[in-house]
Amino acid sequence: MSDHLPPPPETGCRNAPLLKERGQREVFCGLTGIVWLHRKMQDAFFLVVGSRTCAHLLQSAAGVMIFAEPRFGTAILEEGDLAGMKDAQDELDREVARLLERRPDIRQLFLVGSCPSEVIKLDLAKAAQRLSARHAPHVRVMNYSGSGIETTFTQGEDACLEAMVPELPATDAHELLLVGALPDVVEDQALQLLADLGIGPVRCLPARRVDEMPHVGPNTRVALTQPFLGDTLAALERRGARHVPSPLPFGEEGTTQWLAALAAEFGVDRDRFERVTAAPRARARKAIAAAAETLRGRSIFFFPDSQLEVPLARFLTRECGMEAIEIGTPFLHRAIAGPDLDLIAPGPTLSEGQDVDLQLDRVRAARPDLTVCGLGLANPLEAEGLATKWAIELVFTPVHFYEQAGDLAALFARPLRRKELLKVGAAATAQREIGA
């Protein structure tokens, strides 16, 4: 349904050889997901059970001013807790009681595990059951792990949503469930498109408030808006829900195919589909074209960081004319990423996991025009003359669906334009110095 794009390749990358790497990693931990989750769920609170380092990470990542009162905090594990000199469960009960007394607006409380709490084997699942029984029905207490020991930062959202699935009421209604935390304005755009197509009822996970939480059952159809929700999807499927596979809604093509898959599932006729999508598709194509002038013919290398790498590579290669050298991702869930992989022409190296030293060797040998990586690698690579894009920015920025397609392309064009401007400025400075 995107006839301005190149035709799909005869063989995509779904079954391409996968380079599996297991070594040193350079990623944020799953606690980072709280930064966008606490903004999404308006009556929830995220209590990290961790160290002062965990608290500093969250405060820095969220950029919360000192006089603000966000919907997250840290129950600090002191030396006595870590050494087993205090009963950490009793301490946690007291902290939760104080928190709920001070913040009566809290309806959902998440106890979030961290590296320190997992090292001392603090049973937060047991604590959540005990506290939920104690504070019911006003507050529901759940737990999940945000530890970075074996995970990347977007898996914090996956763990959070997975923890919510067993609590969802059962239903036999034929409904669509959108899964993945989106900025409210983007979610509203998606809901309006679906309503215009006549698809509904539509629920969202996570919902903005606990009273709006969806139900789930054998007639629930699941549409993912993020590619890193494999555990949540598995939990929903255990409840009987069925996934509607499609490319992820990045760019004009991805959004159109995402909507087309749902239109086919809910029996929307082609004329109505074309009528509803024609105008936003045209706007998206026009917005992408402006940034694609900078991106076309340029090469890109993805370090594994956010699990957004596969759909972004599809968007950039097919809609912006870039060449992918390597598409690295922390974990490749083929059932989710498969439709995007089908649209990526064979050629790029597909890698899962990370051995940062080996990947640095490959990126230095390839010298791509643009490298997508974590904050810890960006500055050193910039110092070596490689233009970079921070992977974490792609999670914090609204980039889904038609109206954000141009902004998504511009995020990748901006570092290349900056590099060209710096080069021109340096040349002008050198010329002035020669003239002087």
Automatic annotation (TrEMBL):
GO MF assignments: 4 iron, 4 sulfur cluster binding; ATP binding; metal ion binding; oxidoreductase activity, acting on iron-sulfur proteins as donors; oxidoreductase activity, acting on the CH-CH group of donors, iron-sulfur protein as acceptor
Entry's Gene Ontology BP terms? light-independent bacteriochlorophyll biosynthetic process; photosynthesis, dark reaction
Q: Name one Pfam family in it.
A: Oxidored_nitro
Catalyzed chemical reaction(s): chlorophyllide a + oxidized 2[4Fe-4S]-[ferredoxin] + 2 ADP + 2 phosphate = protochlorophyllide a + reduced 2[4Fe-4S]-[ferredoxin] + 2 ATP + 2 H2O
**Which branch of life, at top level?**
Bacteria
What cofactor does this protein call for? [4Fe-4S] cluster
| Keywords for the protein's UniProt record, in alphabetical order | 4Fe-4S, ATP-binding, Bacteriochlorophyll biosynthesis, Chlorophyll biosynthesis, Iron, Iron-sulfur, Metal-binding, Nucleotide-binding, Oxidoreductase, Photosynthesis
Protein's pathway:
Porphyrin-containing compound metabolism; bacteriochlorophyll biosynthesis (light-independent)
Enzyme superclass (EC): oxidoreductase
In this chain, [4Fe-4S] cluster is annotated as bound at: C29, C54, C115
Question: What does the note under cofactor report?
Answer: Binds 1 [4Fe-4S] cluster per heterodimer. The cluster is bound at the heterodimer interface by residues from both subunits.
Oligomer status and interactors: Protochlorophyllide reductase is composed of three subunits; BchL, BchN and BchB. Forms a heterotetramer of two BchB and two BchN subunits.
The family this protein is said to belong to: Belongs to the BchN/ChlN family.
What the entry lists under PANTHER family is as follows: LIGHT-INDEPENDENT PROTOCHLOROPHYLLIDE REDUCTASE SUBUNIT N
Q: Mind telling me what this protein is named?
A: Light-independent protochlorophyllide reductase subunit N
Please name the source species: Tranquillimonas rosea
Its ancestry begins with: Bacteria, Pseudomonadati, Pseudomonadota, Alphaproteobacteria, Rhodobacterales
